Amino acid sequence: MVKPNIDFTDALEQLLARVWQVRGERLDSAHIRKTREAVVDVRTIYRNKGEKLKGEKIRRYSQSIDFKQRRYRAGYIAAFGERHAYLTYLHLKKIENENNGVIPEPRNGELTVTVIGAGAALELFGLCYYYNEERARVKKLKLNFIERISDWQDDRDTMIDKIIKKAFRNLRTFRNNINMNLVQENITLLSQQYEKLSDSDIIIIYNVLNEITSNPLSYQKKVWKNVEYILKICDKRVLILLMEPSARYTRPRVQPIIERLSMVTKHIISSNQEEFTFNEEPLKIQLENNNDGLNVRLFDTPIDRHKPTFETSLKRTHFACFRDPLSPISKFDAERQFRKSLRARDERQRFRKSKDQTSFYDIDSSFGSQKATKKFLNEL
Ligand SMILES: C[S@@+](CC[C@H](N)C(=O)[O-])C[C@H]1O[C@@H](n2cnc3c(N)ncnc32)[C@H](O)[C@@H]1O
User: Fold this and answer.
1) DSSP assignment, residue 182?
2) CATH number at residue 200
3) Whose CA is nearest to atom 14 of ligand 1?
4) Both 347 and 224 in a single domain?
5) Which of 211, 213, 243, 257 maximizes ligand 1 atoms within 8 Å of its Cβ, making it the mutation to test the pocket?
6) Does pTM surpass 0.90?
7) What is the mean pLDDT of residues 272-279?
8) Distance of CA 261 to CAs 27, 58, 99, 211, 253, Å?
9) Cα separation of 206 and 229, whole Å?
């Protein structure tokens, strides 16, 4: 295997510097200290999220992290950055071993990827590395980022400009930021993005479902409605990659979506819990040999009581599947439904949302633009 063009750990420091808004590309000792504290806090929240701690009457920890605060974004990137960046690579390698044919091949060097719960989109690194390891197979990356916290956008741009583009030279990226909350039904918003989303070759759902509580139950339903909508408009085979922490509290948050996916896609690989270790090149995560390295300064220098442990593995629930855009609804039924919705529009001078528009393959009046609806019908 070939090592990436850049030192990923060094590059990660540039991203952290951007998140903290410090000048230059290196963290001074005050920001190293702040990052260490944030790493400890983020890990504590993740460990105790949704759990009532022993001997505690009140839940002390929140159900999710407030990523609007830069300290949590920095803490998250420092705590998980390298490992999350490498996960996609390992996931795709596993899929390749299972069934090479299901991994989308870029067309004329072009690939469209939709990232749900994008954050800083760390997972793009492993994806680009997988595709461009031997030669530049992806030259043009079209990206749809679905995220509720807009504060991530600058960090994501830095991740792409300072890390991805340097590691994979001559890669052009086209970014589409979709600001939305997955627990609200956003079909109208998604339908406005019809053209871009329907082009997806890969959908990534990494480390986001565990952030969404299973109480109320309606949250998972809403998340599924949004994911389902994207799946049903995809106009070619789409590969879906899902990875989430495997801690006990995540199960009611993650399993319902895996179950729904299983019903409408073809399974490739899955595991309730697998440990991924990053101890081999090119995905080796290590403390540098000098005192100057980011990992040494963050995890190995006893400057205060916050000395976070250095971690080089991750336990994950994972799932991968694909879906072909074959609609089991007959052309006749589809046209009949469409005519029905046209009649309703004529009557009311606008499209209306009919009660029976909830099943997976129904034509939905909320498909958005007339252009999108026409495209859908032409393809039937
Ligand atoms: C832990 S980060 C994961 C980021 C990235 N996918 C990764 O693997 O490193 C989870 C992201 O999901 C976003 N998120 C959580 N709940 C969400 C929701 N209901 N709607 C949209 N995004 C959400 C958070 O804001 C955060 O950026």
Assistant:
1) T
2) 3.40.50.150
3) 117
4) no
5) 211
6) no
7) 96
8) 42, 35, 19, 18, 14
9) 18
Decide if 324 contacts 367 (C-beta within 8 A). no
DSSP percent split of the chain into helix, strand, coil, nearest 5: 45, 15, 40
| 353 compared with 114, residue with greater pLDDT | 114
Peptide bond into 256 cis (omega under 30): no
What size, in residues, is the chain? 380
351 and 246 co-located in one domain: no
Give the range of the structural domain holding residue 351, as residue numbers without chain letter: 328-380
* Confidence class for position 357, pLDDT limits 50, 70, 90: very low
pLDDT tops 60 at residue 244: yes
Whether the per-residue pLDDT at 324 is higher than 80: the answer is: yes
Query: 34 CA to middle of ligand 1, Å?
Result: 22
Report whether 244 contacts 317 (CB < 8 A): yes
Task: Classify 16 in phi/psi space as left (phi over 0), alpha (psi -120 to 50) or beta.
Answer: alpha
User: b vs e for 226-261, b when ≥16 Cβ sit within 10 Å of the residue's Cβ?
Assistant: bbbbbbbbbeeebbbbbbbbbbebbbebbbbbbebb
pLDDT band of 260, cuts 50, 70, 90: very high
**pLDDT band for position 176 (cuts 50, 70, 90):** very high
Burial category of 146 from C-beta neighbours within 10 Å (exposed 0-12, middle 13-18, buried 19 and up):
buried
Give the three-state DSSP class for 39.
helix
Binding-site residues, ligand 1, Cβ < 6 A: 67, 84, 117-119, 122-123, 147-149, 152, 181-183, 206-208, 211-212
Q: Does residue 51 carry a pLDDT above 90?
A: no
- Could you tell me if 349 and 222 lie in one domain? no
Please report which confidence band the pLDDT of residue 52 belongs to, taking 50, 70 and 90 as the band edges: low
